[in-house]
Amino acid sequence: MAQQFSVIISTTLTLLEQFQATLASPTTATATAQGTQPQTPSKDTDTEAAANALPLLSNSAAALRAQVTKLSLLAITAPFTHSAVSTVLRACNESVLPSLVTAALLVTPAGYTKAFYSEVLVLTKRALVEFATLVKGVKGIADKKDSAKKEDPKKKEEGISKAEKDGVTVAVVRGVVGFVMRRVEQWRDLVRDAVEELEDWDPEEDDEFFDELMGEDKDGGSDSDDEDGDEEDTAALQEQKKSTLRFLKPVAQVYPAILTYRLKNAGDKPLSSAAGIAKLESLMINLQSIPDQVDEAAGALYESNWDKAAYHLKQTQKHAAQAVNLVATPWAGAESADGEQQSSDKFTVWSKTWLKVMDEVSKPIDAAASG
């Protein structure tokens, strides 16, 4: 049994290396997956592949997640059963992993946009890397168990150490937290882009463009009252732009702060309890909502609709504050240097300051939203 188990483990690790190499040069591999040569692609085949790619990707990812859960539980629960672990690995080798990689290869830039294509490749490669780490951890546990059994066949099998258990658990969790981090980075970039675009926007230039479009002649004796009104409107827009930027800059700071202090070195704590999982999911929902609200606010400002812009800015503030408050204190189980349960840290202090800053910069927006 031990020899057969060793062969299956080795096969799994070899397959994972080959699949990672395949994803490193996806163009040729995609043609192979579709059953065509790169020089003579079939339009019908491409269309069919595009239609099947996402369902296959979703199903294979779900199947891999289920197998990872089984494998981790089998590895950390005594007695260690070689046959049960082999069954899981065999299923991964024969169907789950090939299906996942095939699905990733069937997602093409032409069919799904370059951004989505790149995202699928990155996430699939990361899943393979994390799964390889888990399999190596399982192999280490199996080797230790086999060695102990050879030394004393009659001795009762002992449970694995906390460090070994944590190694397996963290390998599972890291994939999830890594996925969350990548999403948070994307939403951070969207907010940054919106702020940069707003900084470059000049309301006065927009007015001149609109006048030219409507065929108005500024030198043709336009009414002085209209000119005064235009100047007042432009001045108001400039002030609203200034208030919006002052408001959005601390909002943009939420993403790097959460990445650094709550996700980067979180380990297995976010997924160590149902409450932690719920908090992580709620955190993602709020952080994902912010870029959409920022875009709506900017669009309304470009249209000179300050009331609408203020509404979306207040929605932005609500989601940002909820995200910050969700993780204001460390994850459950986090310990300080002296081994005691942490109730606060640098981010906790930062969050209190951030909330005060937001209260201050939101005053002009509050006045418009309540008006």
From TrEMBL:
Cleaved signal peptide residues: 1-24
Keyword field: Signal
Gene3D superfamilies membership: I/LWEQ domain
Region (Disordered): 213-235
Record-given protein name: Uncharacterized protein
InterPro entries cross-referenced by the UniProt entry: GCIP-like
Keyword RNA-binding: no
GO cellular component, one term: nucleus
Composition bias, Acidic residues: 222-234
PANTHER family xref list: CYCLIN D1-BINDING PROTEIN 1, CYCLIN-D1-BINDING PROTEIN 1
